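Risk register update: the risk of archive-format incompatibility is retired. Evidence:
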Amino acid sequence: MAESKCSVCGGSHFEVVHARALEGTTRAVLFVQCADCGAVVGALDFVNLGVQINHMKEDLQRTLEKLRAQFKS
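Archived output:
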């Protein structure tokens, strides 16, 4: 498998950092950047929507189970 490389310095170590002083948005963003030179190679949402949706699904399932139990009695 090929190893990912920074297009600026050729480094192969990356890190995720919170974007600071990001103008034009109120959303929190994470940058994927080269750990050697700091060049940004990607961006991620700070909030993991998949995890949030799964929590909501679980909450709804618990609520539905409670309602079903109430109506069976």
